[in-house]
């Protein structure tokens, strides 16, 4: 009897060691990554369409986008307790703040949730963990809102809704984490072809970023111009943390097919750049924490 338990303990101990060794992975990175995607409040239109059956959702394209790069997805709910977010952040390898059309003002809504996660991720990264964040469209706007100390820095802009655009790279883009290892072909496509899906009526400018003292926090990597020539930020990354944000939607190119939306490019090159961003973000997520 005693012998059995000792053997059992040894077996358990051994399997746990095995597990730890596998978790640390001989590959030198985590090959079983999990990315959290924050849910969005359902818009009035969605609520009506589904007869008020749902109050929040995640667009399938974000899930497929993450899965296409070899990670699994968990949803992150809105309006939960601080311990819920602390707990989930310790179990995942990165977070995406998706696009949508919700208010800053909804209490315990999308923006509050982005704020909570942003602050937890900041602390975790400062303490030597490596946990990347990615904001797309409204998620990008929410990141600037939170980083600015809950200040809405957006301005109205035109010509950015339902349109595919190339990007204008800034001077030092090639020194960014996001683009420094990008194949030349990907940069050329992004520079010259309309491969980024834009669905926004509000923009964040460099001037606004400066006004809220974020110019030394976020590195602007690409800009676009609205119909009146207003220059706005289309890609940025945090100087010190693995935080990335795009005004455009890289997840749409491969996974959204509504024919009424002419702003979603499906060319071969558009698919390649969408995959570049997906792979980049999941590669950030699989880095083994210190
Ligand atoms: C946004 O807030 C306004 C009032 O502040 C409200 O009328 C509107 O329904 C809200 N929209 C959403 C999507 O929650
Ligand atoms: C922005 O990029 C587009 C596409 O490459 C180009 O036609 C345009 O001249 C650029 N604008 C500026 C101000 O550099
Ligand atoms: C980035 O490009 C500039 C020229 O635009 C060049 O001087 C610099 O060496 C490049 N940096 C890297 C890391 O490639
Ligand atoms: C602006 O941000 C820098 C850090 O990037 C900080 O040292 C400085 O105190 C900030 N200034 C104001 C006015 O908030």
Distance between the termini: 42 Å
Instruction: Determine the strand fraction and express it as a percent band.
Output: 15-25%
- Give Rg in angstroms: 20 Å
Largest sheet, in brief, is: 8 strands, mixed
Q: Show unreliable segments.
A: 9-22
Counting helices, strands and paired strands, the structural category is: alpha/beta
- Distinct ligands: 2-acetamido-2-deoxy-beta-D-glucopyranose
Strand order of the largest sheet: 4-1-5-6-14-13-12-9
Mean pLDDT over the full residue set: 91
How much helical structure, as a percent, in the residues? 25-40%
Based on Cα principal axes, name the global outline.
Answer: globular
The SSE order reads HEEHEHEHEHEHEEEHHEEHEEEHH
In total, the number of strands is: 14
Count, helices: 11
Q: Concise description?
A:
The protein is α/β, with parallel strands linked by helices. It is 39% helix and 19% strand.
What does this structure look like?
The structure is a single chain. With 290 residues, this protein is of the alpha/beta class. Helices cover 39% and strands 19% of the residues. It is built from eleven helices and 14 strands. It has helices spanning 2-24, 44-49, 60-68, 82-89, 110-126, 138-147, 177-180, 184-192, 206-211, 252-255, 268-285, and strands at 34-38, 40-41, 56-57, 72-76, 95-97, 133-136, 155-156, 161-165, 168-169, 196-199, 202-203, 218-225, 231-238, 243-246. The protein has an eight-stranded mixed β-sheet, sandwiched between helices. Strands 2-3 form a two-stranded antiparallel sheet. The protein is globular. The structure holds 2-acetamido-2-deoxy-beta-D-glucopyranose (4 copies). One 2-acetamido-2-deoxy-beta-D-glucopyranose binds next to loops.
């Amino acid at each position: 009897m005693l012998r059995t338990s000792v053997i059992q303990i040894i077996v358990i101990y051994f399997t746990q060691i095995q597990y730890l060794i596998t978790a640390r992975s001989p590959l030198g990175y985590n090959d079983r990554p999990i990315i959290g995607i924050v849910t969005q409040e359902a818009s009035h239109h969605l609520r009506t369409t589904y007869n008020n059956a749902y109050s929040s959702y995640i667009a399938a394209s974000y899930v497929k986008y993450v899965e296409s790069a070899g990670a699994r997805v968990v949803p992150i709910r809105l309006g939960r307790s601080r311990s819920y977010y602390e707990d989930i952040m310790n179990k995942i390898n990165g977070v995406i703040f998706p696009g949508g059309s919700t208010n800053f003002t909804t209490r315990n809504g999308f923006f509050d949730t982005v704020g909570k996660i942003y602050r937890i991720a900041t602390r975790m990264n400062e303490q030597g963990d490596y946990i990347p964040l990615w904001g797309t469209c409204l998620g990008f706007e929410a990141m600037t809102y939170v980083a600015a100390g809950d200040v809405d820095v957006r301005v109205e802009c035109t010509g950015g809704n339902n349109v595919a655009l190339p990007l204008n790279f800034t001077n030092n883009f090639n020194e960014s984490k996001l683009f420094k290892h990008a194949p030349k072909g990907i940069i050329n496509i992004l520079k010259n072809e309309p491969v980024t899906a834009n669905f926004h009526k509000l923009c964040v400018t460099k001037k606004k970023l400066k006004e809220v003292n974020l110019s030394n926090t976020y590195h602007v990597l690409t800009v676009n111009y609205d119909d009146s020539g207003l220059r706005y930020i289309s890609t940025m990354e945090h100087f010190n943390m693995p935080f990335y944000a795009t005004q455009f939607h890289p997840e749409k190119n491969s996974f959204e097919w509504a024919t009424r939306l002419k702003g979603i490019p499906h060319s071969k090159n558009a698919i390649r750049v969408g995959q570049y961003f997906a792979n980049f973000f999941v590669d950030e997520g699989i880095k083994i924490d210190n």
